[in-house]
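As a warm-up, study this chain.
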Amino acid sequence: MTMDNTPGKRLAKRLSDRVHAELARAAETLRNRPDYSRVYDYFLELVVKGCDSKAVASRTGRKAINMLCVQVPPELIHAAGLQPLKICGGSSLNFSLPETPALMCPMLKASMAAVSINEGFGLGFSGGDWVIPTTCDWVVKFPEIASRVWRRPMPRVFWLELPHLRERPYGAQRWLEEMFRLKDFLESIGEKITGKSLSQSVALYARAWRAMNRLADMRRDGTLPPVWLMLIMGTFFLDSPERWTEAAENVTPSPVRDSAVRVFLAGSPIFFPNLKLPLLLEEAGLYVAADDLCSSERVIPGAVICHDTSEYGVISAIAERYHGACLCPTFIDNDRRINNILGRKKDARFNGVVFHVLKGCHPYDIESLALEGELKRRGFRFIRLETDYTPEDNRNLFTRLEAFHNTARDGAHERQDRA
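Now compare it with the structure written out below.
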């Protein structure tokens, strides 16, 4: 029996055909929107091809290093002559993946299936090395579950141990030590990291961050539809930072229907083709003026500022940026998350907060309870939506969003009357 006839290969082929058809349909749906522009084709082509480490390596000319979280600094990976690739999945069809927990995080389950499609179930895994930060429990258990699905251990995994007490001095010191351990790991795969290569990578990603910031400003000002912003941001790790940034800089402002009811979107990440929530928000007359999703505005926490351009100085600056500026709910001391939402009120001018929770995403589930009470106490309208990748709850979600639209609109009018 040939390799192509093995049960794993046949399963992977069937699932691959279904998923790529789903990706193509979702892309065609976006192309049929009245606000479609040919400038978006570059990003649509990237998402249709998916998170294939071999394809990304071929596209960029660099070996791909797989990541499961934006907590991993891409500047370090790039400085070693490698390509950072965030493995993410948004396909609802990936739920036929065998031997995974029923209540597993939908995003990570879909991510695991996306890799399985490229490799073939039961045929092992050869798609490169991994850097996995110890953020949530599902991320930590990812290799264990993947080994059962793929029938063999994952290749090399570098565990990036995340200090969950961020504000303590020893937490920052531990994280800096992790950065130097990561440097050694990357050098064992790629090239030697120097102060010069680090500075060049920092400059590349600072330019990318400025392009992202410009796109976020366009959405805030009503000249970039929120759905397109989320699509664009979700493609960042699928190509070289130079090519992606150039494409992002070519996106030009165009007036869109900016509803009077502006909202801030928080919570679990959203990845193509699972755009049901942003599309439902749009249908309900809600305009996402800003967000703090790690799949959107938080893809990069900000530009790294280096006053000391030595190797130690640049790595220290990278460590400080990716630890200190991260808003992940896995941190224990995370008051800055709510402060970030409150601080965005003036420029984004939103009337309410929509909090998105993927079923099985425990950190955001827990955090939503704390944020809801505090934000309501400060006069914000707040709605928590728990969902997964399936479409069965679309009408229920839409009904709730319509009601939220009305209360948020009425609240905005009350404030205008008082003013």
